[in-house]
Design brief:
The chain has 115 residues and is of the alpha+beta class. It has a single domain, classed as Ribosomal protein L22/L17 (Ribosomal Protein L22, Chain A, Alpha-Beta Complex), CATH 3.90.470. The protein contains three helices and five strands. The chain has a three-stranded antiparallel β-sheet with strand order 1-5-2.
Length: 115
């Protein structure tokens, strides 16, 4: 049986890629059901975002013929840097300092567990 990968992509998410990458290691390689359970009870903002994207990937897999949704495994999650929003904050003596608000492009890849 050929290897089948299903993807879900979320772009321009207003969270730093570094914050997402910290969470990624906890769920990568785990079955989808277990990964969703772990993400649900993590306090970080990135965990809620990742949970939503994983659920979207599972829904995408359900649309394909011949995919067993119960045997899906989280193959890979990548959090790449998107464009940064640049803002200024007022400081003493009429100065301004730059604030960089980072964005992420998050990709979740699921595959079927090989028997």
């Amino acid at each position: 049986m050929a290897e089948l990968d299903v993807r879900a992509v979320s772009k321009y998410v207003r969270i730093s890629p570094r914050k997402v990458q910290i969470i990624v290691g906890t769920v990568k390689g785990k079955p989808v059901e277990k990964g969703l359970h772990i993400l649900k009870f993590m306090p970080q903002k990135a965990a809620a975002i990742l949970e939503k994207i994983v659920r979207s990937a599972v829904a995408n897999a359900g649309q394909r013929a011949g995919v067993d949704v119960d045997s899906l495994v989280i193959k890979n999650i990548t959090a790449d840097q998107g464009p940064s929003l640049k803002r200024f904050s007022a400081r003493a003596r009429g100065r301004g300092t730059q604030i960089i608000k980072r964005t992420s492009h998050i990709t979740v890849t699921l595959s079927e567990k090989s028997l």
